[in-house]
């Protein structure tokens, strides 16, 4: 029997979850007593629910169950910045990657369409907005990041606009940025509202066990998945537990659990909107520097700030880390919006990016009746959605060129064991954050 030592925690005030239009609606119930399923999925994030939905389409007569440690929408899938990114995230100016970039673009758009179908089918109010995305730089040295991005956008023939400070400040309502690139395909939304809406929509067809942390597990012909007071027995198991995967004993030295933090204001008062954002449409931006700040002006007139990266082998963030992040968020916010000094952050939280060294994901058949998907590398809304779909296809035995591409590109590099992993990761993260300059 494998016992699970580190369990998911809440890590602060979860802004998207607490401000979600579907907040308070109960999704699923706790796992109690002995229950059965044909296929059990652990983890109710974008990857887990996407897997569950496709499995139910393929196997309408089988019982599919999803077990989640927290409420649906409280895990990392509900803590992110709310970008469903259409373009490959780690675009670089490497000729050899163009074909792969086009394939990733195709898969990301598949996820956008799929999530949009869920939104319409389940009538989900998640502030879905086809807003596009800005990539921006304040520091002259970080304009290099924009140049490299532009090279690949041109090679792949993706639509984009390169925008200088004056025009950018009119569009964003801040004069902070020197230059940016706008790409039109990205979606912005409240990620907790969307994943919760999917959970609400699926719970009639799929047994969702929420608030049910798996504390130990017995693998076998029939797996026994134990929570406090409950056991789920299932012939087939899919693990979609992100950075917690190594806790379950079937994967070792492949993941780097990297924390990052978000802060969200309440909706801005009307007089501020009228004065500073009168002609500004909701927007989202990421930085041209990998350690730079993500910012959003949301459809309900809030400001989101995300930055600071920590390596936490414990899989939790501390109050001191969240306080440090809040202080940096404040500085970044005031630097961009000096006229909003009177606006406080209502929520500050942390969440984990499940990174791998070579940015590939783990998409594996571990044995005849165990499957695993993780390592979405900070873009899991789109990636987890398509990986979950194609994991279900693989289990069912369907083949496609998309599945072959995913299998071909899912070979992750080895990371050294502790304490070398933490030492190396912290050194790399500190170096990255120092070079971001004013873009933090
Ligand atoms: C601050 C921040 C900003 C981000 N911004 C973006 C963004 O804008 N766009 C984007 O695409 N991605 C973004 N990401 C990354 C994205 O959130 C992840 O890639 C995504 O959530 C991965 O989805 P998942 O379903 O694989 O994992 P998760 O969402 O982590 O789901 C795994 C689930 O497993 C559950 N679990 C773990 N252990 C157990 C256990 N023992 N028992 C039962 N359940 C368990 C967890 O509670 C969790 O809900 C961001 C992440 C952070 C932290």
TrEMBL record:
Pfam families, alphabetized: DAO
InterPro entries per UniProt: FAD-dep_OxRdtase (IPR006076), FAD/NAD-bd_sf (IPR036188)
Superkingdom as given in the UniProt entry: Bacteria
Keyword Cell membrane attached: no
Gene3D superfamilies linked to this entry: D-Amino Acid Oxidase, subunit A, domain 2, FAD/NAD(P)-binding domain
UniProt entry keywords in alphabetical sequence: Oxidoreductase
Keyword match Oxidoreductase: yes
Residues of the FAD dependent oxidoreductase domain: 38-394
PANTHER family: FAD DEPENDENT OXIDOREDUCTASE DOMAIN-CONTAINING PROTEIN, SARCOSINE DEHYDROGENASE-RELATED
Protein name: FAD-binding oxidoreductase
Species of the source: Vitreoscilla massiliensis
